[in-house]
Amino acid sequence: MKQAVLNLQGANCAACVFAIEHLGRKVNGVSHIRVHAAEHKVYVRFSGDRSSLEALCAIVAKLGHSAAVDEQSIRDVPADIS
Fold first, then answer.
1. The whole model's pTM is what?
2. Contact (CB, 8 A) for 5 and 51
3. Which end of the chain is more exposed for a tag (fewer CB within 10 A), N or C?
4. Nearest-CA neighbor of 64 among 12, 21, 29, 24?
């Protein structure tokens, strides 16, 4: 499992946030997605397959906004020790 941040432009309203999160949860490999409009960021946990991130960027574009992967943000998610 990996995590990444997408830099988001143009999605400022609650409806935009809802649409990105709702559609993003349907992307194969995405286990968690949270949009923070004030920070212009999308926080994602995914299987590690980059096509998941590309699909999220495509969804954002179809909604009339833009998103780009912050390459330096991609990291492995530590395994739970519980």
1. 0.91
2. no
3. C
4. 12
Write the pLDDT tens digit of every residue in 15-59. 999 999 999 999 999 999 999 999 999 999 999 999 999 999 999
**What are 16's two structure tokens?**
């935009």
pLDDT band at 82, cuts 50/70/90? very low
- Residue ranges of domains in the chain, CATH in brackets: 2-76 (3.30.70.100)
Task: Tell me the two tokens of residue 52.
Answer: 């998941």
Cβ partners under 8 Å of residue 31, min gap 6: 1, 45, 46, 47
Backbone torsion region of residue 66, taken as left when φ is above 0, otherwise alpha when ψ lies between -120 and 50, otherwise beta:
beta
